[in-house]
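Slide 14.
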Amino acid sequence: MRAKHFILTPVVFLLTITVASAQYFGRNKPNYEKFDFKIHQSEHFDIYHYLDNPEYLKELAAQCEHWHHLHQSILHDTIEQKNPMIFYNNHADFQQTNTIGGSIGVGTGGVTEAFKNRVIMPLAMSNQQTHHVLGHEMVHAFQYNMILNGDSTNLRSLRNLPLWMVEGMAEYMSIGGVDAHTAMWMRDAVLRDDIPTLDQLNNLGKYFPYRYGQVFWAFLTGLRGDEIIAPFFKATAMFGIDRASVMVLGMKKKDLSKLWVDAFRRHFGKNLGDKKEKLVGKALITSANGGRLNIAPEISPNGQYLIFLSEKDLFSTDLFLADAKTGKIIRKVASASREGHIDDFNYIESSGTWSPNSKEFAFVGISKGDNILIIKEAASGKTVKEIRPKGLPAFSNPAWSPDKKSIVVTGLVNGQTDLYSIRVSSGKVTQLTDDRFAEIHPSWSMDGNFIFFSTDEQSMKNGRTNGKWAFNLAELDVANGLKSHVNIFPGADNLNPEQDTAGNIIFLSNRDGYRNIYRYQPSTGEVFRITDLLTGVSGITHLAPAISMDRKRNRLVYTYFSGNRYQIYQTKLERMEAHSVDPGVVDFTAAQLPKLNKKVQRVVDHQLADLDEMEAQPAPSLVEKDYRPQFKLDYVGGSAGAGIGSSPAFGTTTGLAGGVDLLFSDILGNNQLFSSLSLNGEITDLGGTVAYINRNSRINWGGALSHTPFRSIQGGYLGVDTLFIGNDAFQLADRYLFDVTRIFEDKATLFAQYPFSTTLRLEAGASFSRYSFRVDRLDNYYDAFGNLIAQDRQKLDNAPPAFNLGNVQLALVGDNANFGLTAPLSGHRYRFGVEQYFGEFNYTAATADYRIYRYFKPVGLAFRALHYGRYGGNSEGLFPLYAGSPWYLRGLNSAAAQDIFVQNGRSFDDLLGSKLLVTNFEVRIPFSGPEQLALVKSKFLFSDLNFFVDGGVAFNTFNELVEDSRDIRYQRAKPIFTAGASVRVNLFGALVLEPYYAVPLVKETKGVFGLNIIPGW
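Slide 15: predicted structure.
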């Protein structure tokens, strides 16, 4: 038995490593669909797409080439090879991409990755948004090329670039120096007297890097001209912003920062007048009863209820029902984190819609790679119906018809945005418009004869404003399908039209650089401004709907942006002061970003203004190529070294240490190949791994081959011996004998997983390993000073025999938990799995692990029930499991625990067995960290304070758990509990430390200090 334990102990360790390397929990990124990508080449790009719209493909290619020309002329950089551009037809498809790891949220408009310089993005619901995101991501492609292929920069240089500088540069070069939405944010900062210094801009949780970074580059180019962009960016990458400021600008960073703050306050402050906000109405939802983000308000037709989106529960953006008069929250209507088949809600630029009888609410969810229409009973939150409209994979902004029969939406199909009607009873889809223009924000007239909406049609026909396509108001005659345009505020964004009881159109516009609510009277053609806000009425983006009408009582609800938060207000229309405005006048003075030096030319603004001329030129020629998933090197890592060392075991030796890691993938990321070679010591210690992963379909699968050596040393001092040194001379020496045992694991592994959703998957795997052994004996002699003077080495013949070990496994894994500062705080996790081992050891292992988390601000409760056991075969011949591990029971992992057991007349063997039952309960208090979560506000120290009770029992047979056990081979298993407190500290996201103090709950006891180095369970 002892020999088997000697062999098995390191083998169990190896198995532990294998299990730990797998993803025990974690969310999934399912490939719900398989996309048939094609390649079209233009002059500078390889365009990967599956668009069934040749004309729109030509437009996309032209936009790529235009942005390349604009950015290249500013940055004076050349991307030598054709740059990969990967387009997905909509955002739900984009969220399935394998080109980058990790999940993609609904707020991510696109990404650019460094290794292949790929731009990956979805087509958006509006032409302008697609064009803007494309220009933004193309800046990133140039940034990566400038740094990774620069003369004096490399991958490490990216660390010197603050995120606000990187993202702000992309925003400035794709939007320019006129932006009403960004100006709204900046006026709010001045009102709050919260203008960040350049150092404070690194607080990303407080200062949104896109908005503030855009203003920084507008400020800098307004000081030195756009020709400063490339040298300042490169110098910052090479030396950091402190030295770059001196080298390029001739001023210290603190002086630049002061100039920035003063210019910021002066420029945006001049548009604030008396700095007193002229709010209209009553605050319904604020941070006091909601969250910081309360958006997309929809008031019920009977005026009694309000449904809105909020992150008031911190970990997800959910739908809430509130009283429309008092703002009292009644219930949570829907949460993506609680509905396993719903991956997310479409909430960035969309809202929901009430049924005409005010009983049901419809909104857009994301499920299995498509948008679906979810209809909920508002009072109970019960799902009434889910509609997956055929042929309409992406849509937003549903609007329920007055007759309750249909819901009109903005739909996106093959790059073209149109209005569609969805029959509620059957899900039948009818296309209402069919053109290259985007129709968004539909709403019905009270009689159901017309649909009001916003469209970019006139802007696309007549030309951009400040380099952007704008939205005008329009209406669709449902009976004959004819469109008519409302010709007011040309060049401004006129959005979110709603009809009031008098037949007027209430809408949002940025026509004066602010964001206010207006009333258009069709009978007279007059337009009135009915709010006069210093910040504005806005959702997360300027295209997000932000107003809703109760048309029976003429009551309006709107989202007000102020204090870096979104609040919901309500008011009667008759209480709103109306100011007549000229419908033909548009003035974007208040939307201008800072420009200190009036003499410098902003090349970016001039180029954006010339985009219409560029698009009038012939479209670039496209050449179609066959798609081939060729592997290309993504990443090379590792290190190597040689050295001379001295130790009692090996003496003075030379050796090699280090390794090299190589990662290959195809352009779409569907196939990945990883290889690693490592050496730690002698050539015998050479190890390596080759792994392949295929993510081309719903089932992700792969395999690996590995050779891994493990080394251990046993032996010690044999006493003083006589060493022959030649010529009949002898020397007394201390003799040590060491046996160096190496275990070689040669392993082949196959694995697969089938994700049902982002929170549930089925895992399967199989492996076969062969374990072989080698024992080398070192006979060492040392002089009186401890120097090695002689050594005999020999390979022994008594190494343990090699053996084989196989394994097959299956597990069901669910995880919708939301992580707090150091541990999960809400949701649940579970893993139910079984493993069968065969070969030298033949047994079955079962895992049942269930965890649930609930957060009641400011306290979280967590519970875990865990069973792990080995069953059958020779399972009891393995090294026993230990229930006293601090991962299971804190306070039983030291010599003090043995004393406690002895003092209470118990055996320490109570903690050993082939099976474990563990339960844990914990009170988790976010202690220091972000103010919206923690008790103590801290930018750097993230910590939790925890109070816990741990319990567990180890046993070999279930008979040991009952009083009348008749199995005389085993004593009755006795559970033990501990209680205590701990503090978990998150060290910059890299490591979680948990010092704890635990007291075993027995009579004769004392507390024990310990340390866990792992996130909370």
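Speaker note: The CA atoms of residues 2 and 8 lie 10 Å apart.
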